[in-house]
Amino acid sequence: MGSLKRTHHCNALSAANIGQEVTLMGWVLRRRDHGGVIFIDLRDRWGLTQVVFNPEINPEVHAKAHGLRNEWVLAIRGRVEARPEGMVNPKLATGAIEILVSELRILNQSQTPPFPLDEEVEVSENLRLKYRYLDLRRPGMADNLVLRHKASQAIRSFLNDNGFLEIETPVLTRSTPEGARDYLVPSRVNPGKFYALPQSPQLFKQLLMVAGMDRYYQIVKCFRDEDLRADRQPEFTQVDMELSFVEEEDIFAIMEGMITHLFRETIGYKPVTPFPRMTYAEAMNRYGSDKPDTRFGLELIDLFTEVRNCGFKVFRDVVEKGGMVKAINAKGCATFSRKDLDDLTAYVGQFGAKGLAWVKIKEGGEWQSPIAKFFTDEERAAMTRTLDAQPGDLLFFGADSPAVVYAALGELRLELGRRLGFIDKKTFSFVWVTDFPLLEWDHEQRRHMAVHHPFTAPAEEDMALLATDPGKVRSRAYDLALNGTEIGGGSIRIHQPQVQRTVFATLGISEEEARDKFDFLLKALDLGAPPHGGIAFGLDRLMMIIAGRDTIRDVIAFPKTQKATCPLTDAPSTVARKQLTELSLRPDWKE
RNA sequence: GGGGUCGUAGUUCAGUCGGUUAGAACGCCGGCCUGUCACGCCGGAGGUCGCGAGUUCGAGCCUCGUCGGCCCCGCCA
Asked: Which nt is closest to the CA of A561, judged by C1'?
C-alpha cells in the first residue's frame, strides 16, 4: 500500500464531501470500459463507490486502469466530484458522487472468480461453501454476518445491564448419558479415556449457581453428533443463561426484555409483550405441535363427541382404541384439484398418516366426499357445525393414534399455510409453551426418558405422581417458539438432592450409575445449592428468522454440508496412523 | 438406516420419441467505443453431459450401481 492510508470506506462519501482528496481501498465489483472513460465500482464490506478514470485528465492512470479485472484489490487516490447533471444514481448511497482518480495502485490481482459475486444468479451451495470467502463478499451474506454481530452485541449489552456475568465453561468435558450422540475426543495422557464436546454447558452453569454467581450467560458453541437439517448443524451457537432465586415468571419477564432489545437493535422491530402463553397440551391439541406457528389459524378441531358413535367404522374404531379424530377446515379451499388432494395425501403420508379423508362443502352445504355416504344427515350436520363449515370450504380429517394425528395434521396445517400464503416473514409471532410432561415412555428402551433433561424440576403439585404415574408428571420446563420454530428452551432446575435422586431413579438410572456419572452434581446440590433455573436460545435459528433466511447455514460464516463436511477445508479428513497410536486408538479399517 | 429431488461450458439453465456437429444467457479472451452504472457493438475460445457398468446399430436421454448437493423421515435430553 506504500504510503497510502485509507481515508474512507466505500459507502461513506456523499455530496457533502465534494472537492475532498480521498483514498479508498477495495475490490473491483464491475468495470465499464468505454474506450475513453473507464468506470470501476469499488466494493468493500460497507458498500460501493464509482471511481472514474479519464484519459484527458490522467492518461497514464487511465492506461493502467485498462487492465483491471473483477475482484482485483485496489487502492485509489482521487478527488470527490459531483456527478454530471442527470448522472446521479439514486439506487446507490454514494450515487451523487464519484472519485476522479489521480493515483491507482494494484494491491493484488485475482483470477476470474468461479461464480459471479453480484446477487443476480443463484449459485449452487456446494460451490459457495467451497469458496466461502468469495460467497461472503456478496452483499446479502455480508449483511447477515453484520446482523449477527449486532445481535450478539445487543444480547451482551442487555445481559450486562441486568446483572449477568459472562463466564466460560470447558469444551473438553465428560460424556453424560441421555441426550444426543456426543462428539468424543480421545485423551492422549489417559489411554482409553475420552472427553466429550458439550451438548450444552448445562451442568457447569448449574454449578456456577451453586458457586453464587447468581446470573450467568455465555454465547457458546455446542456440539451434537446427529443428522443435519436446514436448521440443524453439528456445531451451533447457544445464548446460554442461568439465574438463581428465580421462578418461571422472572425468567419470562427478563427474556421478553432481551428479545425485545434484540429485535429493536437488529431490525428495528418491536415485539408485543408479554408474549402469549400456551400449555403443551393446548399447543398439541390446537396446532399438533409443541412449537406452534401462531401467525395463522387453520387450527385442529377435535371430533371425539361427533364420531364416537358415528356410522363410519374407521373413525369409530380409532376412537374406541384410544386414538383421536381431528379435522382442519381449510376455508375457501373447495377449489383444490384432485392433484392437490393427492399431493397433500402423499405429504401427510411421510408423517405416518395412512390416508387423508377430505370433504368439499358445496353450495347449499352438501358434502362432496368419498366418505360422505358413511355418515347420517345428523352426523354430517354435527361435524359441519363444530367445524364451522361453510359452502366453499375444504375439510381434512385425521384419524389415528394421537401421535400420528398431531404430526400429520400439524404438518398439513403448515403446508396449507404455505400454499395459501399465510407465512409472512415480516410477522414475528412469539409464544411460550409451558407444562411439558417431565417424562415420556421410550418403547425401544422400555423406560421413561426425560423430555427436557434429567435436571428439570417436576411441577410441585405433581411430585406425588412420580412414584405412581410418572408419565403424568408435568415439568417446570418452557420453550419459546417463534413462527413455528423452537428458538429457546429451559426450565427451573432441581436444587434438592433428594428430588434429583428420585428423578434419576424414575429414569432407571441406578444409585450406582448416578454416583458414577453425576456424583459431582449431587454433591454440589448437597452443599447449599440455591433454587435456580435458566434458558438457552439457539442463536443460529434466531438469526435465520431475523435475517429472513430459510437455513441457518446462511447466518453461519463457515457451515457444514448435510453430510457434516466442510467443502472449503475438506474436513473431516484422514489422519496419520501415528496420531492415532499416540491416542491409543487402533483403527481396524484399511488406509 | 430410509424416502424425494437435482447433477450438461467458468456460472445459471435448455436439450423433444434414444438418432447428424450438445445449445442459450451471463462470464471469459480479443477488437471498437468519452458518461456508464447488470454500459453498448463486433468477433472468438470454452464440454470426461458427476463417475462406473449395462441395454442398443446408436445413450446427455433408458436400466442398475456408485459419488456428491439439497429437502424430509428416523435421530436431535
From this structure: B69
Vertex A558 angle, CA A557 and A559, to 5°: 110
Q: Which of residues 112-151 of A touch strand B (CB under 7 A)?
A: 112, 114-116, 118, 120-127
User: Which residues, in sequence order, are CB contacts of A297 under 8 Å at separation 6+?
Assistant: none
Could you say which residues 399-418 of protein chain A have a Cβ atom less than 7 A away from any atom in strand B? 407
Strand B at less than 7 A from CB of A551? yes
Q: What kind and span of H or E run contains A419?
A: helix A402-419
Residue A124 CA distance to nucleotide B57 C1' (Å): 39
Interacting residues of A313 by C-beta distance below 8 A, sequence separation 6+: A374
In chain A, positions 232-291 with C-beta closer than 7 Å to nucleic chain B are: 232
Q: Which of A216, A218, A246, A159 is nearest to A532 (CA)?
A: A246
Of A424, A459, A425, the closest CA to residue A439 belongs to A459
- β-pairing, A477-482 vs A485-492, is antiparallel
Mind listing the pLDDT tens digit for each residue in A250-288? Answer: 999 999 999 999 999 999 999 999 999 999 999 999 999
| Element spanning A260, H or E | helix A248-267
Q: What is the pLDDT of residues A30-61, one digit of tens each?
A: 999 999 999 999 999 999 999 999 999 999 99
For residue A426, count CB atoms less than 10 angstroms from its CB and return exposed for 0-12, middle for 13-18, buried for 19 or more: exposed
Give A96-153 as a 3 state SS string: CEEEEEEEEEEEECCCCCCCCCCCCCCCCHHHHHHCHHHHCCCHHHHHHHHHHHHHHH
- The protein footprint on chain B, as nucleotides within 7 A of a CB, is 1-3, 10-13, 26-29, 32-40, 68-77
Q: Any atom of strand B under 7 A from CB of A50?
A: yes
Query: How long is the CA A116 to C1' B38 vector, in angstroms?
Result: 11
Looking at residue A589, its pLDDT comes to: 60
Cα separation values, A316 from A313, A325, A375, A410, A430, Å: 5, 9, 11, 22, 37
CB-CB contact of A387 with A301 (8 Å): yes
The fraction of chain A above a pLDDT of 90, given in percent, is 93
Q: Which residue is nearest to nucleotide B25 (CA to C1')?
A: A121
pTM score, two decimals? 0.95
Q: Which of residues 350-379 of A touch strand B (CB under 7 A)?
A: 350-351
- The phi, psi pair for A494, rounded to 5°, reads -75, 125
Q: Is the CB of A224 under 7 A from strand B?
A: yes
In this model, does residue A343 exceed pLDDT 80? yes
DSSP letter (8 states) at residue A479? E
Percent helix, strand and coil across chain A, each to the nearest 5: 30, 25, 45
Q: How far apart are CA A556 and CA A384, in angstroms?
A: 48
Answer yes or no: is pLDDT of A534 > 60: yes
Specify the nucleotide whose C1' lies closest to residue A129 (CA): B69
